[in-house]
DNA sequence: ACGGATGTTATTAA
DNA sequence: ATTAATAACATCCG
């Protein structure tokens, strides 16, 4: 679900289906994900706008509006988008549409639905992408950050490396699953302090991070198609290390369940 | 029935 | 300023 590769996949889907379309109506099925005090005001900003471009930074998808502003889509723990022709909607099974929260009806006969099962998603209007990044203090995207910046981010912190990787203010895009994947593939303990890692280890992390994310993006974040040596297939609390067969350990870092091999991933 | 889940934010405290 | 711990958000799944 929605870490960087998933959001990039949504972005591509959005671009293929909903770009250069003008919003005729905004349907609010559940306002929770808007976190917006004034729904009318929100609708007014979107209505009659055209979706002209998409940008993704980390787990955030931005949709540029003509004539003004951008729409931020964040999916939280669960979420998706789905495009239909208007006449298809009534015929869709309830299990498909059950968690649709917001719908954009275009002046073509298309409809884009924003799905959020747990309502942890957020949709916000911003004047520009940069305003949003500045105010939310969003870190560089995991596929954009350069090696020297990455080294600086890691080495300037005493925190556990896993907590740094998950901190969207430092690097944006990695979530719990990919952070564990990355640390396993680089054989680095999630408990290692950032400032205690060797530069060579951080360089390895950076290269592997790019590699893993690119593979995932190329496979449209479809786990079923991932290389079979990926850690996520072994990442279970009762699991064993695919490399050495040692029982995997579980701990909590950065408020998130962390699973790693105590033998392969040295501190 | 209860605990946990791929995410973020506010609050509080050290 | 940085870090860490905790709760909250809302729902589904096993």
Question: Can you give a write-up of this model?
Answer:
The chain has helices spanning 4-18, 39-46, 94-97, 129-136, 147-155, 161-166, 176-185, 199-218; strands spanning 21-28, 50-57, 60-66, 70-74, 80-85, 100-106, 110-115, 122-126, 140-141, 171-172, 249-253, 256-260. The protein has 267 residues and is of the alpha+beta class. It is globular and about 55 Å long. The model has no long low-confidence stretch (mean pLDDT 95). The chain binds a DNA duplex (14 and 14 nucleotides) through helix 7.
Fraction of helical residues: 25-40%
Oligomeric state of the chains present here: single chain
Shape: globular
End-to-end Cα distance, whole Å, is: 29 Å
Mean pLDDT: 95
How much of the residues is beta strand, in percent?
15-25%
Write a compact overview of the structure shown.
With about 270 residues, the protein is of the alpha+beta class. About 30% of the residues lie in helices and about 25% in strands.
List keywords for this structure.
267 residues, globular, DNA-binding, eight-stranded antiparallel β-sheet, alpha+beta, single chain
Helices and strands, with pairings:
Elements (H helix, E strand, L loop, with lengths): L3 H15 L2 E8 L10 H8 L3 E8 L2 E7 L3 E5 L5 E6 L8 H4 L2 E7 L3 E6 L6 E5 L2 H8 L3 E2 L5 H9 L5 H6 L4 E2 L3 H10 L13 H20 L30 E5 L2 E5 L7
Parallel strand pairs: 9-10
Antiparallel strand pairs: 1-2, 1-6, 2-3, 3-4, 4-8, 5-7, 6-7, 11-12
Helix pairs in contact: 1-8, 5-8, 7-8
This protein binds a DNA duplex (14 and 14 nucleotides) through helix 7.
């Amino acid at each position: 679900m929605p870490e960087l590769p998933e959001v990039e996949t949504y972005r591509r889907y959005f671009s293929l289906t909903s770009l250069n379309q003008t919003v005729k109506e905004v349907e609010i099925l559940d306002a929770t994900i808007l976190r917006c005090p004034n729904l009318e005001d929100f609708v007014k900003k979107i209505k009659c706008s055209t979706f002209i471009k998409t940008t993704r930074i980390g787990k955030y998808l931005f949709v540029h509006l003509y004539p003004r502003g951008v729409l931020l889509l964040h999916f939280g723990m669960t979420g998706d988008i789905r495009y239909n022709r208007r006449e298809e909607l009534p015929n869709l099974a309830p299990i498909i549409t059950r968690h649709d929260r917001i719908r954009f009806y275009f002046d073509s006969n298309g409809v884009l639905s924003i799905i959020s099962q747990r309502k942890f998603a957020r949709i916000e209007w911003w004047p520009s992408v940069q305003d949003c990044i500045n105010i939310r203090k969003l870190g560089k995207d995991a596929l954009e950050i350069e090696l020297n910046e990455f080294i600086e981010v890691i080495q300037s912190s005493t925190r556990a490396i896993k907590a740094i990787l998950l901190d969207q203010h430092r690097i944006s895009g990695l979530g719990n699953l990919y952070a564990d994947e990355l640390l396993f593939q680089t054989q680095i303990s999630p408990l290692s302090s950032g400032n205690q890692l060797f530069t060579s280890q951080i360089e390895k992390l950076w290269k592997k991070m790019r590699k893993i994310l690119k593979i995932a993006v190329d496979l449209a974040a479809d786990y079923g198609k991932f290389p079979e040596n990926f850690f996520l297939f072994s990442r279970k609390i009762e699991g064993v290390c695919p490399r050495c067969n040692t029982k995997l350990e579980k701990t909590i870092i950065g408020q998130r369940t962390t699973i790693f091999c105590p033998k392969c991933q040295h501190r």
